[in-house]
Amino acid sequence: MAERRRGIRVLLVDDHQVVRRGLRTFLEVQDDIEVVGEAADGAEGVARAEELRPDVVLMDVKMPGTDGIEALRKLRALDNPARVLVVTSFTEQRTVVPALRAGASGYVYKDVDPDALAGAIRSVHAGHVLLQSEVAGALLSQEESAGSGQGRGGSLTDREREVLALIADGRSNREIARALVLSEKTVKTHVSNILMKLDLADRTQAALWAVRHGVTG
Predict the structure, then answer these.
(1) Mean pLDDT, the chain cut into blocks of 10 residues (217 residues total)
(2) Residues 6+ apart with CB under 8 A from 204
(3) How far apart are CA 187 and CA 191, in angstroms?
(4) Staple partner for 217: which of 139, 165, 205, 207, CB 3.0–4.6 Å?
(5) How many angstroms separate the first and last alpha carbons of the chain?
(6) What are phi and psi of 85, to 5 degrees?
(7) pTM value > 0.70
(8) pLDDT reported for residue 131
(9) What is the Cα–Cα distance from 87 to 90, expressed in whole angstroms?
(10) 109 phi, psi to nearest 5 deg
(11) CB 93 within 8 Å of CB 137
C-alpha cells in the first residue's frame, strides 16, 4: 500500500469557536491540508505553534489578551519556522501594515472564497508572500507616502537585482543560494545590501518594491 503523502500541517488561531469550526470543516476535506490544532488567543497560539510545529498558522489579528500581531512578534523571536497567514475581517492600514512588519507571510480577509483560502495556504507554504489586492495597495500606498526606496533602484548591482527578483518570488535565502550557485552567507550579505540601499525594513517591503518596479524573474 502506498504511503500517504504528508499534508500541509495547519494551526488555527482565532478567538471565535464558530470560525475555527468552519475553517476546520472546510480544510479537512482538502487532500493536502491537515489541521493539527486550534488556539483561542495569541498566547495559546504561540504555545501550540511551539508544541505542534505546524507548517502554516492561520492567525486572526484582533483577539483578547495577546493579539495576533504580538503573537507574530513572539513567533519571530522564537525563530519558529511556521509561515503565518493572517485571516481577519479588519482592513485598516493600522492593522495590515503592523501584521506584515511583524512577519506575516500573507494577509487575506475572512470573506475570502474557500478555494482561494486553500490556495493561499499552499502559496505561503511554498514560500511566497501573498496579499489580496486591497492589502497590497494599502501597503504600497504607505510606502509611497514615506518615499521608501524611491529612485534608488539604480544603485543595485546586477547580482543584487537577481537576488531581489527571487525575494519577490518568495524564495528563502537557501533557495536563492541554490538558484544562483552562491553560499547562504553571500546571499544574506546581498539581502542586507538591498535593504540598506533601498531604505527598506524587511523582505516583505523588498518583495513589494520589486513588484512595483518590475524587478521580477
Answers:
(1) 66 94 92 94 96 96 90 90 87 70 82 87 83 58 52 76 86 88 91 87 78 73
(2) 100, 101, 104, 129, 139
(3) 6
(4) 165
(5) 41
(6) -105, 110
(7) no
(8) 67
(9) 9
(10) -95, 155
(11) no
pLDDT at site 3: 43
| Positive or negative torsion for Cα 121, 122, 123, 128 | positive
What per-residue confidence (pLDDT) applies to 139? Answer: 59
Tell me which residue has cell 546586477: 158
Residue of 22, 36, 29, 31 lying closest to 112 (CA atoms): 22
Q: Is residue 122 a contact partner of residue 89, using CB atoms and an 8 Å limit?
A: no
In this prediction, residue 110 carries a pLDDT of 82
Largest CA distance in the chain: 59
Distance of CA 106 to the CA centre of its chain: 4
- Which residues does 130 contact at the CB level (< 8 Å), separation at least 6? 85, 105, 106, 107, 108, 120, 123, 124
